[in-house]
Amino acid sequence: MSQRQVHLAAHFPGVNNTTVWSDPQSGSNIDFSSFEHFSRAAERGLFDFVFLAEGLRLREHKGEVFDLDTVGRPETVTVLSALSAVTRRLGLVGTLSATFNEPYDLARKLATLDHVSAGRAGWNVVTTNDAFTGENFRRGGYLDRADRYRRAVDFIHAARSMWDSDAGPFDFSSEFFSIFGNFPVPSSPQTHPVLFQAGDSPEGRDFACANADAIFTRHAALEDGKAFYADITERLARFGRSEDDLKVYPGVTFIIGDTHEAAVERSRSVAYQQVSGPGAIAFLERQWGRDLSAYDPNGPLPDIEPDDGSGNLSQGRVQHVKDPRPLIEEWRRLARDKNLSIRDLVVEVSTRHGFVGTADEIAGSMDEYIQERAADGFILIPHLTPGGLDEFVDTVVPALQARGVYRDEYPGDTLRDSMGLPGPTPADQWAAAREASDQPVGK
């Protein structure tokens, strides 16, 4: 039985606290030279794609942009279009909101990107419903959570209809859109850019299984990944799709060392670079809902209770925990048991160095994940901008190739070729399959 092949992709760092800005090798997350260096390294490593996150508003903490997080996010499609001129086979995937865009305009941009890149465009479909982001837009944060996936499904259907029109007339009416006209872009090399989705809620998983070609996940641990993969496979069947129709890519970090012990020590050093003293306090404030600036990050956890009123001093972040009190009690037990300071505790619970070891050890672990069906590939999140992929490409990629589980050349010209995806489903067939399903996604 042939071995399953490892797929690799990369997330451009600089928009989260994974990035170590204090490192002398750290560069700009805005200058195009950084995007170019990063993408050229990914292509040299035969990666499927490079992925750009996008925030439509900079995150704020206590009413100010938190300068240890990120300062600046260029517009995604513009950057990807420029990258198409300095790469030849690398996929170009951008996060773009289905809430604060319109189908005609975004479908035209993505079809154009697919043309100028010769078939390498991908769209990570996200939904946005918060009023904080909406303040940058005329309609504000009007969209209820219950409506955001329904709008996204209608948005995708409208875009597919335009892409299938081949520079012809389109007429699309739904709950959220009533649009008609002539699409100005001929059919692109992939016809439909590859669709991605990042979400872990039941609604998000169903949305991906019904609509996307790939799903991002935070499940990097082996057993968690296997459970997630099995759940996705089962959900796909409900929508009349097979395991091969949707690729699973967990986002993972990595630390490489000449020996295992050296890698572990380097991982610890990087973790403390990622979590500064002010960063640790801000991390706690997001759960306590209180100003904790009077506390020493090298001292014990606050003994006060969280604020049940505001509950969140940060804006622009996904709040995964609805009731912070059980989590805070768990942190207190952990801090007591291990004698952890505030900063120690935040390092313990927030850093995720998914693969730590020598190049051969990391290659072996990645191989195991793929063979055990915990993933189809990995989106690497390095801690340095822009050179964070270089060491991985130079050491781990050859180790994967030596195992016979990683390619020696690109299999084709398009992103679908690189990912091993089937061709796009025409809009009418896709819509009919959704209607035939007994699942409520988008309803």
From TrEMBL:
Q: Which InterPro entries match?
A: Diverse_substr_monoxygenases, Luciferase-like_dom, Luciferase-like_sf, NTA_MOA
Residues covered by the Luciferase-like domain: 23-369
Q: Which Gene3D superfamilies does the UniProt record give?
A: Luciferase-like domain
Pfam families xref list: Bac_luciferase
Q: Which SUPFAM superfamilies match?
A: Bacterial luciferase-like
Residue positions binding FMN: T95, Y149, S201
Keywords from UniProt, A to Z, are: Flavoprotein, FMN, Monooxygenase, Oxidoreductase
Q: Which domain of life is it from?
A: Bacteria
Q: Which GO terms describe its molecular function?
A: monooxygenase activity; oxidoreductase activity, acting on paired donors, with incorporation or reduction of molecular oxygen
- Give the family this protein belongs to, as stated in its UniProt record: Belongs to the NtaA/SnaA/DszA monooxygenase family.
- Its protein name is LLM class flavin-dependent oxidoreductase
